[in-house]
User: Which sequence fits this backbone?
């Protein structure tokens, strides 16, 4: 194997795939990157942490000698990063070493056999879905913050994707709050398919997606999800578990509806939160005709009060929340106007864009 | 100075008080002999026949066929225990109960109000006799270790004061088994070394003790010199709640070890709920036969008090421990700390949480009414 490439050209795919390479790997092969060159001089790079696999490829300008090998990913990235701008990089496999030459620099890197690299399973009869990059990035951005982290209920440590013929719905919950977002897709499916993508895969995928309307091809297998776009192939294992019945916790009978300017409400809550208990983040919300009053205090007996003018004409209500949950929801909503629905002080609050059913946030209250 | 109050034959004495017709009879409180019941308590008349607690009831009745066998009435004993506690509270708030029938008291701050510590101890003993018609043995000493020995020394109806300057003379002639943490195994080792009295332990160098017993040896060296640095900790101020068990014979059977762990977990979780505490950090303690002691802990996202969740954490920690270390095991302990108060955040999927709370609540109610461990999880039932 032998090829020549410009520093900038190799850095792009390297940066893409290095996301899943961890510094402290228990299995040495997992800190390596798999390099493959085929007969058409396409250089392909693959990394994996056994849960998520990333692959990116690039067409080489010069004819290269085909071959494949694995070398330490982090070291390769650090070397290429620190080479001068515009430098040409030449890599040659000789025996079990790879020599990297660039100008007056020369590096000899150790290798591990390709057969050690964990091979990806082929997806059997996958469900194929087409969606635009924009839309996929958006549904993830609007839901991922509500995923649980290292919860014993492992099925909450991920994002639920629910696919029907023309709709993709993403749902995340940590058991205290829930986020939901719908978008359009086209899929060859007559019923509904549910999968849970693990937290790490979700965050990685969100990082890789761009804001453009090019198509993304999603393949859903029994145990894996594969997402292909631009020069990238993202593959992740699925969480084997049953997501809770989220539809049951979407509030049905909110009778107290508040309309507010999103930014004004968010800023007021953010200020009040400064004096809420650092750990529990409790905030007291009082609803009155035409206003929301937000009250916070902490163990040092400091207090904050914010009054926000809103469009509300219902009964008075006092209810407590973890203020971060409300702020997270407000931050994820794209519109200027938001709608908050309440029923009583022991029931969840429904936050959503005004007159828009495509994304919903459910937050359970706190007893104060 | 510390006071240790230990009720004499507590369950049996309460029964005698409640049923005057029992006076002058040997009384045993315990389970039915046909159902492999054991003795919970025996009065002194029954003890003369060799009956003692934890003995199978069948054996006890063979030793003392005339004994009156009574089923335990835990609710009653628990009520009397609360009355005893209110007597203590009259003299000091610094009370550390060890069980229903014994407690440590630190009255250092109350002496100006209630007189010298020995007078307070006398008053407490007298109050228990006058108000509750029950007899307590009382030990007064410079620390907890000595106070506990003192209360036991002249049981029943004992009253022993150990002054700081006399503590060595008091300890020296006592058998080595009086030292805390000296059970069958340690005693056997000591006897092999020709050590029988606490004096013999004191005469060993700290190095020798450490060689034979590890860290525990340092503690034994201190205790043999009458040194005990622990302070009386009232439970409501406790920073952690833990229970541990030392086995008479070191154990290797993982199944049996897990049962003991589950029992400890149930006890700790019950104490948490009784004190309305929830903790985020769950700790497993394991001591191997060579006295090496290990602690493994995990910190959860939210403070908990549910038996099921604590058990999930403890059994997970134990599995990891087993994969790292070799058996046999001498001691197991379960502890919970990091009390932040229960988070008031409500849950979206509350069915699960509610089900756990219901199980805990019902179990607690039944056990408080009919005695500890009447109702327990299926996998603990092989443990007697």
Assistant:
């Amino acid at each position: 194997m032998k090829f020549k490439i410009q520093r900038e050209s190799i850095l792009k795919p390297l940066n893409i795939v290095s996301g899943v390479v961890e510094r402290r790997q228990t299995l040495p092969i997992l800190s390596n990157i798999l390099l493959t060159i085929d007969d058409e001089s396409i250089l392909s790079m693959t990394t994996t942490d056994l849960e998520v696999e990333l692959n990116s490829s690039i067409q080489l300008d010069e004819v290269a000698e085909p071959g494949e090998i694995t070398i330490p990913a982090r070291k390769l990235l650090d070397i290429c990063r620190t080479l001068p701008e515009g430098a040409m990089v030449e890599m040659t496999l000789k025996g079990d070493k790879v020599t990297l030459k660039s100008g007056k620099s020369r590096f000899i890197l150790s290798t591990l056999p390709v057969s050690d690299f964990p091979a990806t399973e082929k997806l059997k009869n996958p469900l194929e879905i087409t969606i635009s990059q924009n839309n996929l990035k958006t549904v993830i951005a609007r839901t991922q913050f509500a995923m649980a982290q290292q919860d014993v209920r492992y099925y909450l440590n991920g994002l639920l994707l629910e696919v029907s013929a023309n709709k993709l719905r993403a749902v995340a919950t940590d058991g205290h709050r829930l986020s939901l977002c719908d978008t359009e897709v086209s899929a060859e499916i007559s019923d509904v398919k549910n999968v849970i993508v693990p937290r790490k895969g979700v965050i990685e995928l969100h990082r890789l997606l761009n804001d453009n309307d090019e198509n993304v091809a999603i393949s859903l297998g029994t145990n894996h999800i594969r997402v292909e776009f631009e020069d990238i192939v993202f593959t992740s294992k699925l969480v084997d578990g049953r997501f809770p019945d989220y539809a049951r916790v979407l509030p049905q009978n909110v009778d107290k509806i508040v309309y507010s300017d999103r930014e004004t409400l968010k800023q007021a809550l953010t200020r009040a939160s400064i004096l809420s208990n650092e750990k529990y983040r409790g905030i007291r919300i009082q609803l009155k005709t035409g206003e929301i009053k937000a009250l916070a205090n902490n163990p040092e007996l400091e207090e904050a009060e914010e009054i926000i003018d809103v469009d509300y004409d219902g009964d008075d209500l006092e209810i407590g929340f973890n203020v971060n949950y409300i702020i997270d929801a407000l931050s994820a909503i794209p519109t200027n106007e938001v709608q908050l629905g309440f029923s009583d002080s022991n029931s969840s609050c429904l936050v959503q864009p005004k007159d828009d059913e495509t994304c919903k946030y459910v937050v359970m209250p706190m007893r104060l | 100075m510390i006071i240790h109050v230990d009720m004499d034959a507590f369950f049996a004495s309460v029964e005698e008080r409640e049923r005057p017709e029992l006076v002058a009879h040997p009384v045993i409180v315990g389970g039915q002999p046909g159902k492999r019941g054991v003795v919970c308590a025996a009065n002194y008349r029954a003890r003369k026949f060799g009956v003692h607690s934890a003995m199978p009831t069948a054996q006890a009745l063979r030793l003392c066929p005339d004994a009156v066998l009574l089923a335990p009435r835990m609710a009653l004993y628990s009520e009397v225990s609360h009355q005893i506690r209110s007597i203590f509270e009259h003299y000091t708030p610094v009370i550390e109960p060890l069980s229903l029938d014994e407690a440590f008291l630190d009255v250092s701050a109350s002496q100006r109000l209630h007189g010298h510590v020995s007078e307070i101890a006398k008053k407490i003993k007298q109050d228990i006799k006058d108000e509750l018609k029950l007899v307590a043995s009382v030990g007064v000493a410079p620390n907890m270790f000595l106070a506990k020995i003192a209360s036991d020394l002249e049981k029943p109806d004992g009253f022993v004061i150990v002054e700081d300057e006399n503590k060595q003379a008091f300890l020296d002639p006592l058998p080595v088994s009086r030292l805390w943490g000296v059970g069958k195994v340690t005693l056997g080792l000591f006897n092999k070394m020709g050590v029988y009295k606490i004096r013999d332990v004191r005469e060993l160098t700290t190095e020798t003790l450490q060689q034979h017993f590890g860290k525990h040896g340092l503690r034994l060296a201190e205790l043999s010199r009458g040194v005990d640095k622990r302070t009386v900790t009232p439970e409501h101020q406790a920073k952690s709640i833990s229970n541990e068990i030392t086995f008479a014979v070191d154990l290797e059977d993982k199944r049996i070890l897990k049962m003991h762990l589950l029992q400890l977990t149930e006890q700790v979780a019950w104490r948490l709920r009784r004190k309305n505490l929830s903790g985020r950090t769950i700790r497993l303690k394991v001591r191997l036969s060579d006295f090496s002691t290990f602690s493994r802990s995990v910190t959860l996202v939210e403070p908990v008090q549910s038996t099921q969740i604590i058990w999930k954490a403890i059994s997970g920690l134990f599995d990891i421990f087993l994969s790292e270390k070799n058996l046999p095991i001498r001691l197991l302990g379960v502890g919970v700390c990091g009390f932040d108060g229960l988070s008031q955040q409500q849950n979206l999927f509350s069915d699960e949480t509610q089900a756990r709370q219901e199980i805990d609540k019902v179990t607690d109610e039944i056990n408080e009414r009919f005695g500890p461990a009447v109702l327990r999880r299926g996998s603990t039932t092989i443990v007697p």
